[in-house]
Write a structure and sequence with these properties.
The structure holds 2 protein chains of 2 kinds.
Chain A (H helix, E strand, L loop, with lengths): L2 E7 L9 H24 L7 H25 L8 H4 L6 H33 L5 H8 L8 H24 L11 H26 L2 H31 L3 H10 L3 H23 L5 H24 L17 H24 L28
Helix pairs in contact in A: 1-2, 1-6, 1-7, 1-11, 1-12, 2-4, 2-7, 2-12, 4-5, 4-6, 6-7, 7-8, 7-11, 8-9, 8-10, 8-11, 10-11
Chain B lengths: L4 H19 L4 H9 L4 E6 L8 H10 L9 E9 L5 E7 L9 H4 L5 E3 L5 E3 L9 H5 L6 E3 L4 E3 L5 H4 L6 H5 L5 E5 L6 H8 L2 E2 L11 E4 L31
Classes of the chains: A mainly alpha, B alpha+beta.
């Protein structure tokens, strides 16, 4: 029986998760994946990777501070945030996230501080105007043997963030586009793409080293290939019908021309930087970096705002995909503005080029008598 | 408790008379059974009687001070054309289904959403942080963030009214008697009788939420996400307004 349906009267539901949420998921994914990329050099002693690791650390710290602020802004009752810690509901992934996020931020900041501590101490010993400030930063010592355990703990917290952010969205059965087991993996893989994109842009701004550019570009190509493979697998599973949730996810948006355009745009955002990064790794950092950032951001925008544009019971699409009004725009501009501000502060006031892993064999609490200042950038 | 206005008030009378009878020497076991009985509220919507007048929508808004950009309940109206026959207008009142397995409940990070003794799914507004996770989790689009209170908002089955023996405002005002409310635990209530005597269905059965809102005469094409052309959707401005009285 063929039935045609025309909705004559229906309610419109605006997006309950605003662009602030997109910014949070975008920035926190970049932060945790950047931190994980910094660990081989700073924790496991892979010194050849130190320059890329310093960029990764910078990205992890600046986005890691910005992200929770965006999250708080998305709460409609931000001053009740303390209730997360008083009334923790164990069945809610968001409740677990409320504990994991601050743990990650604190551990990540302590880890970054410990890597800079020897240089803080040295700067505090010099005779100059702000020496007192760096003596304060160093807490009167240069020891950073505890950086390794801190880095490992921060790494575990980063994995916790990847798990909770993915699961929090994936468990929402009411939104078919979110309710696929692929989603946490896609969040993680696109997070790596975004982090490498930001690192490439910063490399072009701050380092301008063709070798480093090529190194990061090659890693970006691998990350983009992973994202592309996940995307192809997602479509294959959805089309094959072997997984009802994937088929339902595809069916929820299939047939809308705007979603076809989004799919094509997304594919281009992956394919173009992949080809460029693979074929011209030494001269395309700006363009591959910017497209990679765009790809990671667009994925989240599409998932969150696009997912909320699909009615659960009504017909057609809501206009959440492109919400009007200044509120949403300010969420995006505001968080990017805060991140740029933190980047300026970080590169201006912190000796980020001297972030150093603890010397081999240095024990917990041991003080470096005269920390070496690394000139390698 | 009964389902129609007259039946509901009659049921209150029965409770009062029952209390008097126990004083007069009714058996203790009957009294204990009466006291231990906990109603489980439910609604049966007879779509054959709904005329799409939206009186329930307006009554709910006025009763519960629902902001202008949201609804706790409304009546969706569809035009159905089957096999090229003449088009038919179909009404579908929508509201929170007060599920026995509500997906909005486990996701709430601060336990602000809870299941009340009589089956209502309620929100403790003093506890809600406005994270909107429950809004995402509800498969019926029955929740929203109230932009005046900045917390999650939804149908309560007019908890403040039922606590005092009154019917929900939407049931009270329903012109055609399409909305029927009562105690699903009472086999003699009108809703229980309607469930026994009619073929009923629920919205989104595939979600396995065990809803307490039932429909008589629900077309299969409308029980999930309705695949069809949508109504005109005005551009959302993000501005919150209150329902003003008068012009």
């Amino acid at each position: 029986m063929e039935t045609q349906v025309q909705e004559l009267v229906g309610a419109v539901h605006d997006a309950a998760w605003q662009p602030w949420a997109v910014q949070y998921f975008f920035l926190i994914a970049i932060s945790v994946t950047a931190l994980l990329m910094a660990l081989p050099a700073f924790v496991f002693g892979r010194h050849t990777d130190l320059r890329a690791a310093r960029l990764a650390l910078m990205v992890a710290v600046t986005t890691g501070i910005t992200a929770p602020i965006a999250l708080l802004a998305d709460l409609h009752q931000p001053f009740r945030f303390w209730e997360f810690f008083v009334y923790t509901h164990k069945s809610s992934w968001m409740a677990w996230g409320a504990w994991i996020v601050p743990s990650y931020v604190v551990l990540m900041l302590l880890f970054a501080w410990s890597l800079h501590r020897p240089e803080f101490y040295r700067m505090g010993q010099d005779d100059w105007r702000f020496a007192w400030l760096f003596r304060l930063f160093s807490l009167g010592g240069a020891a950073n043997g505890f950086a390794r355990p801190l880095g490992m703990l921060a790494g575990v917290a980063a994995l916790g963030i990847l798990t909770y952010t993915g699961m929090e969205v994936m468990v929402v059965r009411a939104r078919p586009l979110w309710n696929t087991p692929f989603l946490p993996l896609q969040f993680a893989a696109t997070g790596v793409v975004g982090a490498l994109g930001v690192m490439l842009v910063l490399e072009r701004l701050l380092n301008r080293d063709a070798g480093l550019e090529a190194t990061i570009n090659r890693r970006l190509a691998i990350a983009l290939a992973t994202v592309g493979a996940l995307g192809v697998a997602w479509f294959a599973v959805a089309l094959s019908g072997i997984s009802p949730v994937h088929s339902e996810a595809l069916a929820s948006v299939a047939g809308f021309s705007v979603w076809k355009q989004i799919a094509l745009w997304g594919a281009a955002s992956i394919a173009i930087p992949f080809v460029l990064a693979l074929t011209l790794p030494q001269s395309t950092g700006w363009i591959t970096g910017l497209i990679a950032i765009h790809a990671a951001w667009m994925f989240r925008w599409t998932v969150f705002m696009g997912g909320q544009a699909v009615p659960k019971v009504g017909s057609g699409l809501y206009d959440a995909l492109m919400p009007s009004g200044l509120g949403g725009l300010m969420g995006v501009i505001g968080t990017f503005g805060l991140w740029v501000f933190l980047m300026i502060v970080y590169t201006t006031f912190l000796p980020w080029t001297d972030a150093t892993p603890p010397a081999s064999g240095q024990s917990f609490g041991q003080t470096q008598s005269k920390p070496a200042r690394t000139q390698e950038i | 408790m009964d389902t129609t206005r007259r039946g509901f008030l009659g049921a209150i009378g029965q409770v009062t008379i029952g209390a008097a009878a126990s004083v007069a020497g009714a058996s203790q076991s009957a009294e204990a059974a009466e006291e231990s009985h906990v109603p489980h509220w439910g609604m049966v919507v007879d779509l054959r009687k709904c005329i799409g007048c939206q009186a329930c929508t307006v009554a709910c808004i006025m009763e519960n001070a629902v902001p202008e950009d949201a609804f706790r309940t409304h009546v969706s109206v569809y035009e159905l054309v089957k096999d090229g026959q003449d088009p038919a207008m179909v009404m579908l009142p929508r509201l929170c289904n007060h599920c026995d397995d509500p997906p909005c409940l486990p996701v709430c990070p601060v336990e602000a959403t809870f299941k009340a003794e009589n089956g209502e799914v309620l929100v403790d507004a003093s506890k809600c942080v406005g994270c909107a996770y429950c809004v995402q989790a509800c498969p019926y689009d029955a929740r929203f963030i109230n932009h005046e209170t900045q917390v999650a908002d939804k149908c309560t089955f007019c908890f403040h009214r039922t606590q005092h023996g009154l019917l929900p405002a939407c049931v009270e005002t329903c012109v055609g008697g399409a909305r029927n409310f009562g105690d699903l635990n009472d086999p003699d209530s009108e809703v229980s009788i309607m469930l026994r005597e009619n073929e009923v269905s629920v919205l989104r059965p595939e979600m396995h939420t065990n809803p307490n809102v039932y429909y008589i005469g629900l077309d299969d094409v409308l029980d999930g996400r309705v695949a069809g052309d949508s109504a005109y959707h005005p551009e959302m401005t993000g501005q919150a307004h209150a329902h003003g009285e008068g012009l």
